[in-house]
Amino acid sequence: MEQQSEVLCIGAGPAGLTAAYLLSKRGRSVTVLEADPRYVGGISRTVDYQGFLIDIGGHRFFSKSREVEDLWTELLAGDMLDCNRKTRILYRGKFYDYPLRAANALKQLGLFNSAACVLSYFKARMFPYRPPANFEEWVVNQFGRRLFSTFFETYTEKVWGMKCTEISADWAAQRINRLTLGTAILNALKPRPKTSPREGVIKTLIDRFRYPRRGPGMLWEEAARRIAAQGGKVKMGRRVTGLTHCPETARWRVAATTPDGETETHTASHVISSAPMRDLFAMLEPAPRAAASGAAAALRYRDFLIVGLIARDRAPFDDNWIYIHDDRVKVGRIENFKNWSTDMVPDPDMVCYGMEYFCFEGDRLWHSSDDELIALARTEIATLGLVEPEDIVDGVVVRQRKAYPVYDDAYGENVAILRRAVADSYPGLHLVGRAGMHKYNNQDHAMMTAMLTVDNILAGKTIYDVWRVNQDAEYHEAGAAGQDTVLADQRAVPGRAA
Questions:
Q1: 3 state DSSP class of 334
Q2: What is the pLDDT of residue 490?
Q3: Mean pLDDT lowest for which of 274-278, 349-353, 470-474?
Q4: CA 484 vs CA 90, 94, 220, 328, 429: distances in Å
Q5: Strand order in the sheet with 300-312
Q6: Which one, of 83, 101, 44, lies nearest residue 339 by Cα?
């Protein structure tokens, strides 16, 4: 028997749940299908391991969009903590504040190295690469070669699995937007307000943020609860296997596999998809034309896993997370979830560290067993001098497929082909969110694309082009003349340098 809704959302991440919450709040019939049998939130979920709560990637709740901030408050006002951000870089056994604080950098680098960094910066400004051909040259232009080698090279190559000379300069220009050594030093010398203004601040430099008391999953669990209370449905363990558009009824028929292996069929006038574009186009009927099928198949992703280490709390550091600039270890970043919120751990004498590893699905690291990964993380955190091995009592591994959409040389053209295919052949299909739009952006951006999609559905026409939402979840009515909105205001993932 077919289950009918006005709107069907594929994926219970920030985009899918935002859309479903706003639609059900307006009395519209909405169903959400989520493949995970237990957790909502997608990449923003919070995994519970024996009472220890693990945030997949670390999510600071900060947005320049007042609409997004207001929705967070509406859903979870009483349980949103106001947190001080503390993040540092660990390099050669020393901690460096991030963002840069002049006194700390001088102390840790020493007078000679600090002077050498400043001289290196001025040399780079006097004799820049014109134009910079790759990530390395772009960062050297902005910070000088000595700081590039110290604070950028090792970590970047861990995260993306490419040499800095192989990464496009465009990624650096967008990822480190408007930040140079000069602006970082000026920021370090300015008085710091208790709360960061939403306007005119470089996101890299914010020093306060909000955070749900029990992790980001707490907010999305509340959204799912309210959707159900408002008459909507959030169905877990439903893996979508096919989407068929029926021109004679102007409706969509969506097939999904249930946890017991049965096939469930849903129909809806609109489908809002936050599923990865590559997967979505492989399921569409009528099948996309060859160009669109090829474009979808060519999209690539970077994957991610996190090893949660449960240990006795000896308070080795009070950071939210630490960037690891050390080529002796594979770990890229270490989080201390207790420093986000004490409610993330069930025992005040214990702590949970998140050891983040970046990989490709199918590589050796991804296919390592859980025991091997826990042993690796245990060894590496001891190698870094942060935790004694005997203090670690347990561990757990969480894998995240398709965490980062990759912006390779052809991605822009491929996404443009897929957008045209949706517009021309699949009425009522709406793409939202990071994976759904192949746009590497934060959860506030994903939420804004869902909000504008809801406005379009309620209006019965396209009044907003969701592709004009930028990385700060701000909507641009019009881009520069001739600008392709596929590429506009992306928070970039590195592609190969030309």
A1: strand
A2: 43
A3: 470-474
A4: 39, 44, 33, 42, 21
A5: 94-98, 87-91, 321-324, 333-336, 350-359, 300-312, 392-406
A6: 83
What digits encode the pLDDT tens for the residues 154-175?
888 888 888 899 887 876 766 6
Sequential DSSP letters for 166-226: GB-HHHHHHHTTT--HHHHHHHHHSPPPSS--SSS--GGG--EEEEETT-HHHHHHHHHHH
Residue 284 has pLDDT above 80, yes or no: yes
What tokens were used for 84? 């001080």
Residues 6+ apart with CB under 8 A from 488: 467, 468, 470, 476, 479
Q: Do residues 114 and 104 touch, judged by C-beta distance below 8 A?
A: no
Which DSSP string do the residues of 121-181 spell out, in sequence order? Answer: HHHHHHS--SS--SHHHHHHHHH-HHHHHHHTHHHHHHHHSS-GGGB-HHHHHHHTTT--H
Q: 177-180 long-range contacts, Cβ below 8 Å, gap at least 24?
A: 177/202, 178/202, 179/142, 179/204, 179/205, 180/142, 180/143
Phi first, then psi: what are they for 433, rounded to 5°? 80, 180
Instruction: Using alpha carbons, list the distances in angstroms from residue 92 to 88, 89, 327.
Output: 13, 10, 10
Q: Helix, strand, coil: what percent of the chain each, to 5?
A: 40, 25, 35
**CB distance 390 to 378 below 8 Å:** no
| Nearest of 98, 39, 58, 88 to residue 353 by alpha carbon | 58
Distance in angstroms (rounded) separating the CA atoms of residues 33 and 348: 37
Q: What residues contact 109, with CB distance under 8 A and at least 6 apart?
A: 96, 117
Three-state DSSP state, 85: coil
SS3 313: coil
- Number of Cα atoms under 13 Å in the Cβ half of residue 321: 19
What local confidence, expressed as pLDDT, does residue 408 receive?
73
Measure the CA–CA gap between 274 and 461, rounded to whole angstroms: 20
Q: What interhelical angle do 181-189 and 102-126 show, nearest 10? A: 150
**44: nearest Cα among 457, 479, 442, 466:** 442
Distances (CA, A) of 24 to 7, 35, 62, 234, 280: 10, 21, 25, 11, 24
Q: Alpha helix locations (H) across 298-438?
A: 364-367, 370-383, 411-425, 433-437
Is there a contact between 287 and 53 (Cβ–Cβ < 8 Å)?
A: no
**Contact, 450 vs 436, CB < 8 A?**
no
Number of neighbours of residue 294 by Cβ within 10 angstroms: 13
CA–CA separation, 158 vs 329, rounded Å?
10
Q: Band of the pLDDT at 436, cuts 50, 70, 90?
A: very high
102 confidence band (pLDDT: 50, 70, 90): low
For residue 111, what are the contacts with CB-CB under 8 A and spacing of at least 6? none
**Nearest to 329, CA basis, from 396, 388, 405, 386:** 386
Dihedral sign for Cα 278, 280, 282, 287, please.
Answer: negative
CA distance 345 to 54: 9
